[in-house]
Amino acid sequence: MTEASVGLRVTRAGPLALLQDAGRFGVRRLGVTQGGPVDLHGWAWANHLVGNAWGAPALEVTFGGLELTAERGLVLAVAGADLSATLDGQPLPGWRALFVERGQQLAFGSPVNGLRAYLAVAGGFAAAPVLGSVACVAREGLGGHDGQGHRLAEGDGLRVTPRRAAVGRTAPRDDAEIDYRRPAELALLPGAQIAEFSGESLFQAFNASWRVDDRADRMGVRLTGPTLQCRMTSMISEGISLGAVQVPPDGQPIALLNDRQTIGGYPRLGALTPLACSRLAQCLPGQEVRLNAAATESALEAYRRFRGGFA
After folding, report:
1. Which of 83, 170, 206, 240 lies most in the core, judged by the most C-beta atoms within 10 Å?
2. Rounded distance, CA 98 to CA 136, Å?
3. What is the pLDDT of residues 187-245, one digit of tens each?
4. How many helices (DSSP H) and strands (DSSP E) are in the chain?
5. Where are the coiled-coil regions (predicted)?
6. Could you read off the pLDDT of 278-294 as tens digits, one per residue?
């Protein structure tokens, strides 16, 4: 087995770059959230293109600004958002496996299409798991490249366990690449408190357009639009699932993502599906989204098809 060694060195950190595997599960009873990639779709394709198994750690790059130097030859792929990535100053093709030689410079610029890009290397990034995962959750100080939940900083070395992989492999454009600039259609499974909202509010929720607020991060995304009215004035806090759409007293929904709190006490319209969460995670502030009520069976079938492509 190849021993892990530093494969990439950070020469410029950028605003936010985190190491993420599939997430941390079975620990919410401890008050620990799941972490993992907020865009499961882009993360999965980056790993798939370099031949990694499901769950391999990849780098989530938000907004760009990250610069890396290769300290050895690597096969890598970038999927998800177009963050104006370059290799030695030349445009780096996304959604494609390619070979990077020692000393070459990989840089992410500013967003062109989407918000978060995923960088995977053949063999995967190597880090010590914490509570069974290397998923980086900065708020909880868990996981990541150093095990302490830190974002990448200048001078950090990313250890890899390199292996051979085919170069030139590309993702099918129709199945993988997404124009994240288009209005997002988000599938939502109705939840336990949906009957507590007024009829007018439910009509507005699923027929009006919403805008992504600038108050958005890995914990959740606030949506602005019509004011939703709920008859419930209080409720006992309960467990919060990925994609839960809570409605606080101001009537503006919040879609909770991977770094959400584990319990909450606001009524919920329901929960976005995992693929809807992925789509929302690529939306820039001000972007238009719409909520579409979905049946559990159709949501499960869509997710099974997605996962089946990475078996």
Report:
1. 83
2. 26
3. 999 998 999 999 999 999 999 999 999 999 999 999 999 999 999 978 899 999 999 99
4. 4, 20
5. none
6. 999 999 999 999 999 99
The amino acid occupying position 151 is R
Please report which helix (H) or strand (E) contains residue 216, including its range. strand 210-216
Where do the structural domains in the chain lie, given as residue ranges?
5-160, 184-308
What is the distance between the alpha carbons of residues 132 and 63, in angstroms, rounded to a whole number? 28
Q: From CA 131, how far away is CA 142, in angstroms rounded?
A: 9
DSSP string over 137-158: BGGGTBBSTTSB-PPP-TT-EE
Dihedrals phi, psi of 205, to nearest 5 degrees: -55, -40
CATH class of the region 184-308: mainly beta
Strands 67-70 and 74-82: unpaired
- Say yes or no to pLDDT of 1 above 50: no
**Range name among 55-69, 105-119, 163-177 with the lowest pLDDT average:** 163-177
**Ramachandran category for residue 167: left, alpha or beta (phi over 0 → left; psi -120 to 50 → alpha):** beta
Beta bridge partners of 101: none
State residue 163's pLDDT score.
Answer: 85
Place of tokens 């009509």: 203
Q: For residue 50, give the amino acid letter.
A: V
Summarised one tens digit per residue, pLDDT across range 113-140 is 999 999 999 999 999 999 999 999 999 9
Q: Please state the separation of Cα 212 from the chain's center in Å.
A: 16
Residue 156 in tokens: 């950090």
Amino acid at 131: L
- C-beta atoms surrounding 254 within 10 Å: 23
Question: Pairing between strand 210-216 and 86-87?
Answer: unpaired
Nearest to 243 by CA among 24, 6, 34: 34
Cβ–Cβ under 8 Å, residues 267 and 235: yes
Helix (H) or strand (E) holding 45: helix 40-49
Q: Show the CA angle centred on residue 76, arms to residues 25 and 106, nearest 5°.
A: 110
For the chain, what percent of residues have pLDDT higher than 90?
A: 92
276/298 Cα distance (integer angstroms) = 13
